[in-house]
Design brief:
four-stranded mixed β-sheet, alpha+beta, 3 helices
C-alpha cells in the first residue's frame, strides 16, 4: 500500500502526517508514505487544495486534516 501526502510544509501537512502515522500503527501490513511538495504532483492528481491525502493513487481528501480513525478506515477499505 502506498500513501502520499501532497502539500508544502505547513502545520496542517504535519498534522496529517502525524495522523497517518498513528493510523498505520493500528494496521498490519507494508505501507509506504511519501511527501510530495511539487506543484507538478498536485496537478498530476488534480489536487487544488492542500494538504491532500492519496492512498493507492486515489485522492481521499483535499484541504483538510483527517483524523487517525478516518485514515485507518480508508486504509482498510482500499487495502
Amino acid at each position: 500500500m502506498e500513501i502520499k501526502i501532497i502539500g508544502q510544509e505547513s502545520s496542517n501537512r504535519m498534522k496529517l502526517l502525524k495522523n497517518v502515522g498513528k493510523a498505520m500503527e493500528k494496521i498490519k501490513g507494508k505501507i509506504s508514505v511519501s511527501l510530495l511538495e511539487e506543484d507538478e504532483d498536485a496537478r498530476k492528481y488534480n489536487v487544488s487544495n492542500v494538504p491532500a491525502l492519496i492512498i493507492n493513487e486515489k485522492v481521499i481528501s483535499q484541504g483538510k486534516v483527517l483524523n487517525e480513525k478516518e485514515i485507518a478506515n480508508f486504509i482498510r477499505i482500499l487495502a
